[in-house]
Amino acid sequence: MSHMILRCLPAVVLCLCAQLPLPAAADPISMAAANESGQDAFKKFERKIEGFLPGNRDAKGAAIAAAKVFNPVQEDYQVNGNPANNAEKAVLQGLMPLAQATAVDGVFARNTAQKKFADAAKTATAPVAGANPAFTEVAKNPSLTSETAGLLNSKALESAGAIAKQEFDKNPGVQYVTRDQVYGVVKPDKVPSPAAAAFTVNRDPFAADWDPLASRGVTVDLSQVGFSLQTAGSAIAAVLANTDAAYSNGTVDIGLPQTDALPLYDLLLPFVSIDGASPILDIGAFVFDVFGNEVFDSLGNVGVAAVTAGLLSHIGLTSTNTIGFTAPYSFSVMVPGDSAQSVLYFRAVSAAAVVAEAIPEPGSLSLLLLGFLLLSVLQRSGRAPTQGLCSPSSKA
Q: In sequence order, what are the beta bridge partners of 127?
């Protein structure tokens, strides 16, 4: 009986080879890469504050950058241009698994992780005073930068890095510019599932004395937001950008906790490339909310529904592997109330996560096992090949 099975296998293997697509003989490749694109290779959230009176107050903020590769583990955490202290490092290490989960397989799981990370990154990095201070907001004068080392595992071909930068212009028509660069690149070599992740958090509150004769609002320019995502083989590259704002009227004390402030707007833009496909907006995790506040955009749309439609209409591919805003676009949200002073709390979060898996080449043993399995199925179903393929013959 055994010699009959062995005689059948070549024919079964030929059937499999004719019907199933197999990798080419050359080394198969999986890879994933995610990076910022646009002006200066940075994603750029530019926020222009309308209707305030120029003053001499220095703006403060906190710039946070984190990066990690996994095989072997290398990580770097920076806060306000310095290595994170023990309290800060513990928080950022706790956020890193959430950042990496933004590149998990499965739409629902990935979208849930994207929203969870964005919320956690903003709340977990709130300033902490006392004996063990963390994420202290410092004067910009007029900029503030944190940059991780460029991490590289040559064995696993993993790399990751992050830069968080804030710029502040005190002149009338003040502009806040948030520049966040995050990147990760992986390619299977000697480890089966290399991974890399990086993220940034920028916090920058601003105290405003309002001009009683002017409209008060915040304009967010998204024209420079763009990401380059490229995958091949079995791989996922995911990025997200989140910016939000809140306000407290009747004060200029930027040391007050943001938990007591009222929300102004929240925008979450997640993008993904999977298994070699072009990058797309991961619409299940997309968020745009103005919490009932007055909003309009550069296209003349008014109201959250119309502005959302206008915003989405400007997102698309700007090159083969790059997605972002295809034309200049901004939206404006008005700050409610008529108090003479307010504190505006701005936050911006970016993250990149990549993972890839090696594609095994089909060995002869694998084909043999596949052939035997198919033969077994055919025999049990009563559809086993007969004469000329597997049946006993006079020569057996």
A: none
What number of residues does the chain have?
A: 396
Rounded average pLDDT over 363-386: 44
Distance CA 244, CA 12 (A): 60
- Nearest CA to 42 out of 228, 263, 262 is that of 228
Residue 72, preceding bond cis, omega within 30 degrees?
Answer: yes
Whether 193 and 357 have beta carbons less than 8 Å apart is answered as yes
User: Residue 49: enclosing H or E segment and its boundaries?
Assistant: strand 43-50
Place 171 in a pLDDT band, splitting at 50, 70 and 90. Answer: low
Q: Residue 94 class from Cβ within 10 Å (0-12 exposed, 13-18 middle, 19+ buried)?
A: exposed
- pLDDT digit string, tens, across residues 345-355: 999 999 999 99
The pLDDT of residue 6 is 32
- Smallest Cα–Cα separation from 232: which of 275, 183, 185? 275
Q: Enumerate helices (H) and strands (E) in the chain, giving the number of each.
A: 5, 23
Characterize the bridge pairing of strands 143-147 and 158-168: antiparallel
> Distance between CA 222 and CA 10 in Å, rounded?
60
For 101-141, the pLDDT digits (tens) are: 999 999 999 999 999 999 999 999 999 988 889 999 998 87
